[in-house]
Amino acid sequence: xxxxxxxxxxxxxxxxxxxxxxxxxxxxxxxxxxxxxxxxxxxxxxxxxxxxxxxxxxxxxxxxxxxxxxxxxxxxxxxxxxxxxxxxxxxxxxxxxxxxxxxxxxxxxxxxxxxxxxxxxxxxxxxxxxxxxxxxxxxxxxxxxxxxxxxxxxxxxxxxxxxxxxxxxxxxxxxxxxxxxxxxxxxxxxxxxxxxxxxxxxxxxxxxxxxxxxxxxxxxxxxxxxxxxxxxxxxxxxxxxxxxxxxxxxxxxxxxxxxxxxxxxxxxxxxxxxxxxxxxxxxxxxxxxxxxxxxxxxxxxxxxxxxxxxxxxxxxxxxxxxxxxxxxxxxxx
Length: 333
Description:
With about 325 residues, this protein is α+β, with helices and mostly antiparallel strands. The chain has eleven helices and 13 strands. Helix 8 packs antiparallel against helix 9 (about 220-235).
């Protein structure tokens, strides 16, 4: 049996000083404490020279065991030679030959309390179990863990508050029956588009014959019809278009970036065609239609929400007066 393999560590040393290294007389490592072994994560250490595993930053001395023994009791500033190049501090003490614990001429390097707590947690996931129970590092780890827990709780609270804020804002902008946007949302969207000088089309849509459905079939049928109307409008528009329910059977659709009359006419025609399809409620058909008036922001020098709504409304009533179930585009002349 070789001298290196016959070395025995002091009983309980791994418990009292789990972050330590035992060297023989030639400066080779014969034992590492369990915490250092965890830091090394399977990298071989036993059999290496101590200064092959660690780079001695201070004090500046030679690379021999005699040089190391010459700085016994002095704080050693060390750095692991392999990634992540963790810096550590330690102190070396020679082991008396009469102790019978290690080979004569060997030494013990204690690295306890010599690693940054941030590095210990971030790079190696060390916990209080990796240090002696009386090590001051344990107290610092408790502080780090407490701070981490507090920060995590604060982050989760902020996320919940932000989520609640978003939910509240979404609820404030949403029509509860149809899931469409409400008038408050319309004011916000129109203000943003006008302020950013983004061209858009505004369609004012009013359901035809909806009052008849409400009067003959009841409000349950009316609510069902409104929900189906909302679905039809969502299906016929883009994801970034805005659909608003402004009143009982009144809607506004906003198409950012579209000011082409042909395109808007095609959209309006499809909407009216689909709205005229019977909506079945409790095995009976509810028949409605839609009339639409449209206005384009590019027709105004500086568009205002009030003026565009008024002009789209005028075009809507022209459509109704012309027989309903049709659309009219407002023209500045």
